[in-house]
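ok trying this again, last paste got cut off
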Amino acid sequence: MIPVDDLIGLVRAYNPKTDEALIRKAYAYGLEAHEGQFRHSGEPYFSHPIEVAAILAEQRLDDSAIITALLHDTIEDTGASYEEVSALFGQEIADLVDGVTKLTNLQLSSTETKQAENFRKLFIAMSRDLRVILVKLADRLHNMRTIKAMRPDKQSQKARETMDIYAPLAGRMGMQWMREELEDLAFKVLNPEGRASIMRRFITLQNETDDVIGRITLDMRQELKDAGIKADIIGRAKKPYSIWRKMQEKELAFSRLSDIYGFRIIAQNEADCYRILGVIHQRWRAVPGRFKDYISQPKSNGYRSIHTTVSGRDGKRVEVQIRTQQMHDVAETGVAAHWSYREGVRSENPFAVDPVKWVSGLNEQFDDEEDHDAFLEAVKLEMYADQVFCFSPKGDVIKLPRGATPLDFAYAIHTRIGHACVGAKIDHMRVPLWTRIRNGQSVEIITAEGQSPQPTWLDIAVTGKAKTAIRRALREVDRGRYIKLGREIARAAFEHVGKKATDKVLENAAKKLRVEDGEELLARLGSAEIVSRSVVQAVYPDLIKSEIEDVDASGAVIGLAADQHFDRAPCCQPLPGERIVGITYRGKGVVVHAINCENLSNYEEQPERWLDLHWQDGKHPAIYSVTLELTIGNDAGVLGRICTLIGEQKANISDLRFLDRKPDFYKLLVDVDLSDAEHLHALTSTLEAETDVAAITRQSDPARHRQKAGD
């Protein structure tokens, strides 16, 4: 465990004016609060917050961020309260600690709808104070560095969440070093054999080529010296995951990969950057199509650098990045540059761009998106995508994600231009709307009066902004027709049970189904997004029950052959009412998976094994087990009340296992037998309303069902 004097020494090295007394106070407070708590490795728990603080100190962050790191688990895991932290350390630090606590409780890898809601909360937290995210990223980094102490199933869950969410988020915020380390640590857990293979081949290559990095570095230094240019040169090999991803994307064997070495040249000023580029291209042959000038066209997170790839010794390709020291600081620390110190004062870096603008823009962009899946899809597209730079006919620079089309370009200019788009020209040549735009191209949009978005555009557009605008327009175009059709469907459905579909009844149904209002309910009913049975049942549940036939468990799934039997996949535990597919096994019948199950990726290259299945309509028996993870208060009678609530919802508890016991809470897994997805929703809603239930999530564990693709 890092002593307090050593931690203060790290901070004082870049900020001599640090409030040493306040850091000591926070250190002592956290040490006492976490007394008696231990990590999975057996170490005192407080060693973790100290390491998180040290990671932030390496990024030269301010005192508030360092103290937040020391206290970031106190409100969640100890008896500390927001009021106490605020009284002792001030409201700013208390707000930061509270923000980190709330982020920790977000289940970003949960079900799609829940995940979309939590992403909204994530962006709100980022908008308020980005230091919350910096502390959370450092927290995740240290947890990944020490992940071996966790159970294998937890390792897989955390690694997948890191790969899917935290690593791309770090990259989007400009913290490339953190993204690379997070990716590589997650890669080590998710595919240890693949990483070990890369490492073995890389060591063999090093032995064959001797010290290629050292030799190329010396060559570059000599060339720059001859040209009278002073600069620092840093050579390195790319991370194993970066190499692996390139192999997968380009479908290349390791032996055919060329640019696995990278060099960074730190120049003294911007003019020298371009002089160095000329020296490099005079000495080594430039590889066509691999030049990018991010100095004249910076990325949205402030990243500036010149990228080029050249053929070095023995024809080996190497990537060269050329930038100034200030550009390098932004490239290394990204958003952290806003709070970093140099020589005791906050550094004013002219190249640091505040990603709050990106987050705020994203929030505004998707505020009107009601569909949770659409919101989540759009957010991930925005967060994970690399960018290309193209030009309007007037010379304006438009930034788009890689793979964007002229449609995305049109909507990036203005929604009205996108709606009226009938064609496009790239570099003065007419092209189809699905053409992918490349860096540096000029794009011209052809419009026509009377044009409106087409449903096929959803498959062409890439950006979240374009997809959202197209969906909204399509809904508006068809809305009148859908409302009229929905009203007729509702009238017939309610008359069938002897009732009338009055406006008041429809408003009541909309409220029960969590739809905005009665008119929106009719529109969704007319577009088949909601079925009439659900609408009637929402208002008159007793009347509709008599219409529902009981479903025999043996025939619960439609789409199987007469001699086939099915089993539910233990990894995703699909329920009636959820979209499903089947995977066939020799001698094992069919295993039914939820449509969003991660394990389905194992069978992408075996389409012959996939079956299109769906659940039988009707009332299913409560025999389908689902695992719920509950965090509940450690008080007398709480567990008994939880079990009673589950029983009152007519759900049977088939198993119960404790995961963690703390002085203030229990974390446990509960297996409950349910009838369908609506039954699950009713149960979780009831449990979430219980004040002693701090968190509830449905478990989805790919590790529970690892079958070889050839089975």
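PB: full thing came through this time. The chain has 28 helices and 22 strands.
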